[in-house]
C-alpha cells in the first residue's frame, strides 16, 4: 500500500515534506489555475500564474529567492508546475488542491 501512495505522490510531484512549515517560513504560494477559477476562490496570500504562462515567469519567480508552494484544483497542474520550477532550479513543492491547502493553512 505504501508503495502505491509513493507512486501517486511521485506522479503528482508531491515531496514528503512539511508543507505548512515551508509556508510558515515565508514561501510564495502560487496558484496555477486559470483566472476564472482564481476569481471564484483563492488563497488570499497567493499569486496567480496560470500553468500555461508559467515558463514566461521563471525569472520573476526565481528572483524571489524563496521556496514556492504551487496549488491548483486537484493537484495535477500544481504537480506539473512544481516539476517545471524544480527543473529550472527553483525550489518548489506541490501543495495539492485548493481545498487541501485551505485545510492545511487552518491548522
Write the layout of secondary structure elements.
Elements: H1 2-12, H2 19-24, E1 28-31, H3 35-40, E2 47-48, H4 58-63, E3 68-72, H5 76-87, E4 92-97, H6 98-106
How many DSSP-defined strands? 4
Biggest pleated sheet? 4 strands, parallel
Superfamily (CATH H level) name? Rhodanese-like domain
Give unreliable regions as ranges: 1-5
**What CATH first level would be assigned?**
Alpha Beta
Fraction of residues in H or I helices:
40-55%
Arithmetic mean pLDDT: 88
Q: What number of structural domains do the residues give? A: 1
Which class of secondary structure composition applies to the elements? alpha/beta
For the largest beta sheet, what order do the strands appear in spatially? Answer: 2-1-3-4
CATH topology: Oxidized Rhodanese, domain 1
The CATH architecture name reads 3-Layer(aba) Sandwich
Shape: globular
In terms of DSSP E residues, the strand content is: 15-25%
Please tell me about this protein's structure.
The chain is α/β, with parallel strands linked by helices. The protein has one domain: Oxidized Rhodanese, domain 1 (3-Layer(aba) Sandwich). 47% of the residues lie in helices and 16% in strands. The protein is built from six helices and four strands, in the order H-H-E-H-E-H-E-H-E-H. It has a four-stranded parallel β-sheet.
